[in-house]
Amino acid sequence: MTETPTVAGLVLAGGLARRMGGGAKALKHLAGRPLLAHVLDRIAPQCRTIVVNANDDRSACETFGYPVLADVVEGFAGPLAGVLTGLEWLDQDPAGKADWLLSVPTDAPFLPDDLVARLLTATADGAEVAVARSDGRTHPVVALWHRALLLPLRTALVAQDIRKIDRFTAGRRTVHVDWPTTGGDPFLNINTPEELAAAEIRFNTAT
Predict the structure, then answer these.
(1) CA distance 26 to 11
(2) CA distance 161 to 164
(3) Which residue from 82, 87, 120, 143 could staple onto 53, CB 3.0 to 4.6 Å apart?
(4) Residue range 95-101: average pLDDT?
(5) DSSP string, 161-181
(6) How does pLDDT run across 109-136, given as a tens digit for each residue?
């Protein structure tokens, strides 16, 4: 019998949050709790283990009970640097290696509870990357990455200076998975104080 592939989770909290007025976006509050807490609640039941990628306020992120790792490359190289960090951590994980790494942003508090299951199913035909999509828009940061991408990604980021996720995934076996937006986009990400206020209204309406 073939074992079910295991999935580790990576929360990307390493951005500079300039449009939010600076500071750690992961610690901005929605419904009385940090955004990071909402995201962890969403993915924890779907992942074998979780790590947080953060470059600032690492000590505050550590209070959530998961390992916190800074980018393995310097200079705030963007989300691909976070994914590389996650894949390197996965490769060295002493607790047992997962086959896949789920990446999600820290500013997406409405992630679907079938995220891992549907992305994983979509890889059955040999895809290396499965990317979420809603309302015709791709969400490159919400993706499932096979562990074999560690070396190709390191080469792309460090040797070729490829910074955009779409540019990297365009050269890999990538599949996109669509989600409905009934009741709101499950991949809504919060970049400004105004968007945070709108998310507060949506959260209160849903609950």
Answers:
(1) 10
(2) 9
(3) 82
(4) 81
(5) ----HHHHHTTS-EEEEEE--
(6) 999 999 999 999 999 999 999 999 999 9
> Taking the CB of residue 72, how many other CB atoms lie within 10 A of it?
18
Q: At what angle do helices 35-43 and 115-122 cross, to 10 degrees?
A: 60
Domain-by-domain residue ranges, the chain?
7-206
- CA 84, 139, 112: angle at the middle one, nearest 5? 100
User: Quick one: tokens of 146?
Assistant: 């096979």
Residue 46 parent element (H or E): none
44 and 84 Cβ atoms separated by less than 8 Å:
no
Torsion sign (Cα): 128, 37, 63, 46: negative
3-state secondary structure of 16: coil
Distance of CA 169 to the CA centre of its chain: 15
Residue percentage of the chain with pLDDT more than 90: 71
What local confidence, expressed as pLDDT, does residue 61 receive?
A: 85
**Looking at domain 7-206, which of 3.20.20.450, 3.90.550.10, 3.40.30.10, 3.30.450.20 is its CATH number?**
3.90.550.10
User: Dihedral sign, CA of 106, 197, 119, 43?
Assistant: positive
What's the pTM?
Answer: 0.92
Query: How many CB atoms lie under 10 A from the CB of residue 97?
Result: 12
Express each pLDDT in 23-38 by its tens digit: 678 888 999 999 999 9
